[in-house]
Amino acid sequence: MNSREAVAYLKGLLEGAPPADEGEKRLFDAIFCAIDSLSLELQELKQRVDEGEKVYSDVLDSCLRLEDEMSDLHDEVDLLKGGEEAEGVEEDYEEFYASLTCPVCGHSFYYQPDEYEEGEQLQCPSCGGFFDLPRS
Q: Distances from the Cα of 76 to the Cαs of 60, 72, 80, 83, 84, in angstroms?
């Protein structure tokens, strides 16, 4: 039984009780009215707390997901900068990138072969010239 139901029950008992002094009846009515108002406010506050907990839970989940993503990005940046391998990263730097020399200007650079499809062309970062991917 929630607080509003308890107040309604007590009001029913008071109304069913033998007639009492009119002053006492007014006093009890005022007390039950105040308790009923407090009960209503308590119910509204509980609803707001429940909504706040839901929002908090959603924000916490988002923060944890972002923390994981930031950790992964930090590990990748460390690898790209040539730093020590981050904990949990098993692949070597060479497995991600391949070295290539531009046939137009002779500039050497790295690219990620897995990011390109067969028949797709590469663009040299130095001269801007396009050329076919080397065959594996």
A: 24, 6, 6, 10, 11
pLDDT of residue 86: 47
Determine the distance from the C-alpha atom of residue 130 to the mean position of all C-alpha atoms in its chain, rounded to a whole number.
42
Helix (H) / strand (E) element for 31: namely: helix 22-80
Rounded average pLDDT per 10-residue block, the chain, 136 residues = 83 78 84 90 94 95 94 89 58 71 91 85 91 79
Whether 32 contacts 10, CB under 8 Å? yes
Q: How high is the pLDDT of residue 135?
A: 74
For the chain, domain boundaries: 3-80, 97-132
- DSSP 3-state assignment of 17? coil
Flag whether the pTM goes above 0.90.
no
Distance from chain centroid for Cα 106? 47
Q: What is the DSSP string of 101-134?
A: E-TTT--EEEE-GGGS-TTPEEE-TTT--EEEPP
Beta carbons of 124 and 131 less than 8 angstroms apart = yes
